[in-house]
Design brief:
mainly beta; four-stranded antiparallel beta sheet; 4 helices; 28 strands; globular
């Protein structure tokens, strides 16, 4: 906090910032302290007096086991530990795509056999399959926290033999969408350049054969995900975005034309929340979208379990405001997806955690919440303990009319018991596929 308020000098800043990022980050720091020494001491004293010795954690176990899905696994014996960074179902070619921290992209057939595996220039974070012969990917440059503009968007054939840079010089891009923001017939890109201390939510305007022109929608770092939709029904696509670094929020950027966006913060969260993901869905079937939100990023300065980590539903009121109507504690929650998995007419929730309580409850790093009259009953899966799930995809991979779930494991060692790490290393489970047995 002292660092961000300009209370430290450049030598002190070097403790926080890699040498390669120093000039970029120093440029956004205050030129002089934002508070006086007396005010700063009062802030420090407040925290020293008021901060609890420990946090109260609800340690209740989830009893019921999930039986709706049949389980299959993909084991990758090429790496010491599974290091998945993305997973995607290619519905055109009926294949599964997954990328790894080691900058490889793998394509599996429906028998979970590797058809193709090839190298990328850096780890991939997101992929969209444009057609049977083209994929668009974001490559992070460096996966770990950094501010260097080494990321890019590329186009690739499924076999990887033809790769072309579409947009480069991005700060750790983690997500993108395409839409025609100005109605000129060309698709533009909205890109979440997550960065670290710096970063931005960006729109790249397509200029046809001349390339792309960058527009900054928000200069805050930590943009994680967007949903592009014409929210105000004026014929122009708008951007709903989550920002997760420091000033954590879900904000609607309304397209005013000519790549100008007005800004309305729908939800704002404390900077300790660790916002990680969001989706929109109409849970109460009133015609208004609600927000499904997870928070549980626990990799920075305090790795202890936190009772406010979990999954929330914010229900939209008729005046456009949002109210929290459901919360379930889930240690380190990192992603949740709403879907009517059991085909009973309401939305259930599948959720994963990257910072679960691996010491006590490793089988709760994947949870399924069945919607029963707008209450959500949790179910666990014993196979949930077989990986540290970082990405999740929902798709009808069997083509039988119900939705299946795919989980990808990035088995980092931090805060994981040795016995569990040994299990992961021996089993080598990169992907967990939950095949829905409703149909």
């Amino acid at each position: 906090m002292a660092f961000r308020l300009g209370m430290t000098d450049l030598m002190e800043a070097k403790k926080y910032i890699p040498e390669e990022d120093l000039l970029t980050v120093v440029g956004i720091l205050p030129n002089q302290p934002l508070v006086s020494e007396e005010e700063w001491r009062a802030i420090v004293n407040y925290y020293e007096r008021k901060a609890p010795v420990e946090l109260s954690i609800n340690d209740e176990r989830i009893i019921d086991s999930l039986t709706l899905f049949e389980i299959s696994m993909f084991k990758n014996n090429l790496e010491a530990l599974p290091l998945v960074t993305l997973i995607k179902v290619d519905t055109f070619n009926k294949r599964i795509i997954f990328g790894t921290r080691n900058s490889t992209l793998n394509i599996l057939n429906n028998q979970l056999e590797v058809e193709t595996s090839y190298a990328l220039s850096s780890p991939a974070s997101h992929v969209e399959v444009e057609n049977p012969n083209e994929m668009i990917l974001t490559l992070m440059g460096i996966m770990d926290p950094n501010d260097r503009p080494l990321g890019k968007v590329i186009s690739s054939t499924p076999d990887g033999k033809q790769q072309k840079i579409v947009i480069d010089s991005l700060q750790r891009p983690v997500y993108f969408e395409k839409a025609d923001f100005n109605g000129d017939g060309f698709e533009d890109y909205v890109i979440c350049a997550f960065g670290n201390y710096t970063g931005a939510l960006l729109v790249y305007e397509s200029k046809g054969q001349s390339g792309y022109l960058k527009h900054i929608v928000s200069s805050l770092p930590g943009s994680r995900k967007t949903i592009v939709k014409d929210f105000n029904k004026d014929g122009r696509p708008d951007i709903l975005s989550m920002l997760t670094q420091g000033d954590e929020q879900i904000t609607l950027f309304t397209n005013e034309g000519n790549f100008d966006f007005s800004e309305k913060v729908l939800l704002r969260f404390p900077p300790v929340y660790g916002s990680s993901y969001f989706e929109i869905a109409d849970f109460n079937q009133d015609g208004l979208f609600d927000i499904l939100y997870t928070n549980g990023d626990n990799s920075d300065l305090s790795l202890i379990l936190k009772p406010y980590h979990g999954i929330r539903i914010f229900t939209q009121n008729i005046n456009g405001t949002f109210k929290e109507t459901w919360f379930s504690q889930m240690h380190g929650a990192s992603q949740a997806i709403p879907c009517d998995f059991d085909k009973d007419g309401d939305l259930d929730i599948a959720a994963i955690s990257f910072f679960s309580d691996f010491a006590k409850h490793p089988d709760e790093s994947f949870l399924y919440f069945e919607n029963i009259n707008q209450t959500f009953k949790p179910f666990k899966l014993k196979e949930g303990a077989s990986g540290r799930w970082v990405v999740m995809e929902v798709s009808d991979i069997e083509g039988d009319g119900d939705q299946d779930i795919l989980l990808g494991a990035l088995d980092f060692k931090s805060k994981v018991p040795t016995t569990l790490l040994q299990q992961w290393s021996q089993e080598q489970i990169s992907l967990l596929i939950l095949k829905n047995s409703t149909y």
